[in-house]
Specification:
The complex is a heterodimer.
Chain A lengths: L2 E3 L4 E5 L4 E3 L2 E3 L5 E7 L5 E7 L5 E3 L5 E5 L4 E6 L8 E8 L6 E2 L3 E6 L1
Parallel strand pairs in A: 2-12
Antiparallel strand pairs in A: 1-4, 3-9, 5-6, 5-10, 7-8, 8-9, 10-11, 10-12
Chain B lengths: L3 E4 L2 E4 L5 E7 L5 E7 L5 E9 L2 E4 L6 E3 L9 E3 L8 E8 L10 E2 L3 E5 L1
Parallel strand pairs in B: 2-11
Antiparallel strand pairs in B: 1-3, 3-8, 4-5, 4-9, 5-6, 7-8, 9-10, 9-11
The chains are: A mainly beta, B mainly beta.
Chain lengths: ~110, ~120
């Protein structure tokens, strides 16, 4: 079965610093890849998705992610973090055979 | 505006009681899902439905039941057989069926606490 790992449970960055959240998946073929963000007590909002084509995808709120087939990774990045980015971030994959599989999440804290 | 509405947002239950969480969508999506979220465990699939009057068990269906009598509605019942029901429950939908790629759209969630 496919799985998704997010190695960092909690990350703290200073406002204005750059951010990279890691995501690795295990699956033989290239699945469809997603990043979602969740504020406390809220539902999940889609930040960006990769289906095919350009491996660098742009999303909302200034986020981008890069798909690296050789590393089975789909890391999320932002060049300058804002205090409002503090939230939980989930990587997810869909291989069209099993249902969506979500990673355990990375909680982001932002220092003023 | 189109979206997914979950109710209630907060629910308290005594042990031994069944409770039903509502999920309504006006996105005209065919597929609907229920997830359970616990701290540090991501989202786990409880049940999903791709068409009216049909649904399938997910990874943690024991102690839960669903119905899909209308395209717009996919209520989840947490039965007394669910050993540890305190959690945050999320409903989602997608316009794409299983053989097509598509993103999930989520409701705002329902937090169930067993007293």
């Amino acid at each position: 079965a496919q799985s998704v790992t997010q190695p960092d449970i909690h990350i703290t960055v200073s406002e204005g610093a750059s951010l990279e959240l890691r995501c690795n998946y295990s699956y033989g073929a290239t699945p469809y890849l997603f990043w979602y963000v969740q504020s406390p007590g809220q539902g999940l909002q889609l930040l960006l998705k990769y289906f095919s084509g350009d491996t660098l995808v742009q999303g909302i709120k200034g986020f981008e992610a890069e798909f690296k087939r050789s590393q089975s990774s789909f890391n999320l990045r932002k060049p300058s973090v804002h205090w409002s980015d503090a939230a939980e971030y989930f990587c997810a994959v869909d291989n069209l055979v099993q249902n969506f599989v979500f990673g355990p999440g990375t909680r982001l804290s932002v220092l003023p | 505006d189109g979206g997914i509405t979950q109710s209630p947002k907060y629910l308290f239950r005594k042990e031994g009681q069944n409770v039903t969480l509502s999920c309504e969508q006006n996105l005209n999506h065919d597929a609907m899902y229920w997830y359970r979220q616990d701290p540090g465990q991501g989202l786990r699939l409880i049940y999903y439905s791709q068409i009216v009057n049909d649904f399938q068990k997910g990874d943690i269906a024991e102690g839960y039941s669903v119905s899909r009598e209308k395209k717009e509605s996919f209520p989840l019942t947490v039965t007394s057989a669910q050993k540890n029901p305190t959690a945050f429950y999320l409903c989602a939908s997608t316009r794409e069926l299983k053989n097509s790629a598509g993103e999930l759209f989520f409701g705002e969630g329902s937090r169930l606490t067993v007293l």
